[in-house]
Design goal:
about 400 residues, alpha/beta, 2 domains, about 15% strand, CoA-transferase_III, CoA-Trfase_fam_III
C-alpha cells in the first residue's frame, strides 16, 4: 500500500524537541512523528526514568520505551551541566517547538527560551494545575473512577490498568502543537501552552456527566460491574466457560437479543409484570438484572462457538473477552493494515502499529525506535551545523553521548 506523501506526512518539515518520560509526552511526540514531524527526544546521558521501564526483554531492553518512541531521533546530553543545558536550548531554539513533562526547570522554561526564539511554541504537561505533582494513577484516585469500577458488591477502589489520562493527555498535547503551528503560520506568534494531567481527567469526568450528575441530581454514580450505565449491556458466560460482552443500544438490538435467546415472550411478560416499557433504554437499564436472568440461561446452555456464530447473524453488539495473548495472534492484529512487520533493534521482529489514522486508506507505518543517543551527532550536525570535530569535543567533555549510552 503506497502512502500519499502530502497527506500521510502533513507535518513534514516541522522540527520538535521532546524532553520527557513515561506516557503522555512520549505518546505526543510519537504521534507528531507519525504525522511527519522530525522529533528528537533529548534524554540525560544514561537515560531518563523510563528508559528501562518494564516490560523488558531477556537482555534488559525496554519494550515499553521502544513502543512509545518509534520513529523519533534520540539525543543524549548532560542536562545538569551549563554546557549541556545551553546546547539543548540551542536545539529548542532551532526547532521552535518544545514539548515536555519535565516541569519547573527554569533553563527550559517558556520565559527563558522565548528570549532565544520569540515565536517559540512551548507545551508543558504538569501533574496538577496548582503546580503539584501527579501521575495517571494518583490523578485517577482523586477524581472518582476507581470508586465506581469493579463488581457492585466491592467496597474497595479499583484502578484501571489502562493509563487513560496519560493517553488522553498525549493526544491533547499533539493537538495543541498542531493548533499552535497553525496559529504561528497565521500570525507569526508562538504560544505558551500548559496541560495539567489532572485537568484532563477532570474535564473528561465533567464532559461525561459524572460531576454534573452530582451537581444537578444530587446523586453519585454507583458500581454496576460490567453493566453499561443507562443502556442494556451485560457480560455472560458460555457453557464452556468463555465470557462475552453483549450490548443492546437500540430497540432493534434489544429485539434481536430477545429473539436470539428465545425469550421474546418472557421479556414481554416481564414488562407486563413490572409495568415497564422496554422500548425505553432507561427502563431496560433499570431492570437489567431481571432481563439478564432471562438471557443468561441461553448463554449458559451454548458453547462459545455456538454463541459467536449465532450473535454474528444479528444486529447485537458483542465481543468475547480475550487475553492480550489471544488478541496478538488474532486477525484483528495479524490481518490489520494498521500493523506492519517491524525489525526493532535490541527488541526483535514483531507486528507494530503505526498511526491509527488512515490517509486515503493508507496508515503511516511504524518506524523503529532509536537507542539512547543514536542520533546525537546527526541532530547536532543537521540542526546546529556542528562539525564532526565539534561533536567529538562535546562527547569527550561529557556534554553529550552518542550511540548506546549507559
Amino acid at each position: 500500500m503506497t502512502e500519499t506523501p502530502h497527506l500521510a506526512r502533513p507535518l513534514a518539515g516541522v522540527r520538535i524537541v521532546e524532553i520527557s518520560s513515561f506516557v503522555a509526552v512520549p505518546l505526543a511526540g510519537m504521534t507528531l512523528t507519525q504525522l511527519g514531524a522530525e522529533v528528537t527526544r533529548v534524554d540525560p546521558i544514561g537515560g531518563a526514568a523510563d528508559y528501562r521501564r518494564w516490560p523488558v526483554t531477556d537482555g534488559g531492553d525496554s519494550i515499553y520505551w521502544a513502543g512509545l518512541n518509534k520513529g523519533k531521533r534520540s539525543t543524549a546530553a548532560d542536562m545538569r551541566s551549563p554546557e549541556g543545558q545551553e546546547l539543548v536550548q540551542r536545539l529548542i531554539a532551532a526547532s521552535g517547538v518544545l514539548i515536555t513533562n519535565v516541569a519547573g526547570r527554569q533553563w527550559h522554561s517558556y520565559d527563558t527560551l522565548r528570549e532565544m526564539r520569540p515565536d517559540l511554541i512551548h507545551v508543558e504537561v504538569s501533574g496538577r494545575a496548582d503546580g503539584g505533582t501527579g501521575v495517571d494513577y494518583t490523578v485517577n484516585a482523586g477524581v472518582g473512577f476507581p470508586m465506581v469500577t469493579g463488581p457492585a458488591e466491592l467496597a474497595t477502589p479499583v484502578n484501571h490498568v489502562l493509563p487513560a489520562w496519560d493517553v488522553a493527555c498525549g493526544i491533547y498535547t499533539a493537538l495543541a502543537v498542531v493548533t499552535a503551528l497553525r496559529h504561528r503560520d497565521a500570525t507569526g506568534e508562538g504560544q505558551r501552552i500548559s496541560i495539567p494531567l489532572e485537568n484532563v481527567a477532570l474535564a473528561t469526568a465533567g464532559n461525561l456527566g459524572f460531576f454534573t450528575e452530582v451537581m444537578i441530581n444530587g446523586t453519585a454514580r454507583e458500581r454496576i460491574g460490567n453493566s453499561v450505565y443507562g443502556q442494556y449491556g451485560q457480560d455472560f458466560v458460555s457453557s464452556d466457560g468463555v465470557s462475552f460482552m453483549v450490548v443492546a443500544l437500540t430497540g432493534r438490538h434489544f429485539g434481536d437479543l430477545a429473539e436470539l435467546t428465545g425469550t421474546a415472550k418472557a421479556v414481554a411478560a416481564l414488562a407486563d409484570t413490572l409495568g415497564a416499557d422496554f422500548t425505553d433504554e432507561g427502563q431496560r437499564y433499570e431492570h437489567r438484572e431481571a432481563l439478564s436472568g432471562l438471557f443468561g440461561e441461553w448463554f449458559a446452555t451454548h458453547t462459545a462457538d455456538e454463541i459467536a456464530a449465532a450473535l454474528a447473524t444479528t444486529s447485537v453488539l458483542w465481543e468475547r473477552y480475550r487475553t492480550f495473548t489471544e488478541t496478538a495472534s488474532a486477525p484483528k492484529v495479524t490481518d490489520n493494515p494498521l500493523f506492519s512487520a517491524l525489525d526493532q533493534p535490541r527488541i526483535g521482529s514483531y507486528l507494530a502499529p503505526g498511526l491509527p489514522i488512515a490517509f486515503d486508506g493508507a496508515y503511516p507505518r511504524a518506524v523503529a525506535a532509536p537507542a539512547l543517543g543514536d542520533d546525537t551527532a546527526g541532530v547536532l550536525s543537521d540542526w546546529l551545523g556542528l562539525s564532526g570535530e565539534q561533536v567529538d569535543r562535546l562527547v569527550q567533555s561529557g556534554t553529550v553521548a552518542t550511540g548506546r549510552a549507559g
